[in-house]
Amino acid sequence: MSRNQRLVVLGLAALVVVVGVIVIGTGGSSNSTKSAGPTTVVVRDAKPVGGVKDVTFKKGDNVDLTVQSDTADEVHFHGYDVHKDVTKGGSVHFSFPASIEGKFIVELESHKQTLANVTVAP
Question: pTM of the full predicted structure?
Fold first, then answer.
């Protein structure tokens, strides 16, 4: 085997390794959805600490969201139309099957303050 042939073979081998690392690193698919798992939103002065949370759950998994608040109000999970009253210094927990695909907001209802943007993806 000549020197040039060896360099070509080495170059192709390096290319195969790079492509393999990229495929493994992305999981082999660009449309995979990772479910968020348990998520907590902390509310201080009627606003979500750290800003509005973006959370994604995979359809068929369980929505698991807790809101801890220093402000009494109704917490409304739009789309699924689930709402719970939270007391000042209290918390509410939402747990239900992620059966409806789409984008939904979780809101401190009377304050009209979005706490989380929830996506349920296929």
Answer: 0.71
